[in-house]
Amino acid sequence: MLIGTFLLILVYIFFLEILGFILVSMLFIFICSLFLGYKKHVTNAIVAVLFPVSLYLIFTQLLGISLPSGILPI
């Protein structure tokens, strides 16, 4: 489990600049939750979408910190 999660983190870091924060974070949260055995796929999908989008908005709009937008035209 630990090695698998570590490999997912490495993939996350590699694709962060290429695909952008929102898309990579969505995929990471969803795939990691599946890997760790969570069975409620709809709840996982909702969290995987809402959490990165809200963090992105907080960082860019409220704090003025730019995060990688990647391929999304944000």
What is the count of DSSP helices, taking H or I runs of 4+ residues?
Answer: 3
Number of strands: 0
Strand content: under 5%
Order of helices and strands: HHH
The value of Rg in angstroms is 13 Å
What level of helicity do the residues show?
over 70%
- Secondary-structure-based class equals mainly alpha
Main beta-sheet annotation = none
Termini separation comes to 34 Å
Low-confidence stretches: none
The overall pLDDT average reads 93
Bulk shape: globular
Could you please describe the fold and organization of this structure?
- There is one protein chain.
- The protein is mainly alpha-helical and 74 residues long.
- It is 74% helix and 0% strand.
- It is built from 3 helices and no strands.
- The protein has helices spanning 2-19, 21-35, 41-62.
- Helix 1 (2-19) packs antiparallel against helix 2 (21-35).
- The radius of gyration is 13 Å and the shape is globular.
Features:
74 residues; mainly alpha; 74% helix
Compile the SSE list and pairings.
Elements (H helix, E strand, L loop, with lengths): L1 H18 L1 H15 L5 H22 L12
Helix pairs in contact: 1-2, 2-3
In brief:
The protein is 74% helix and 0% strand.
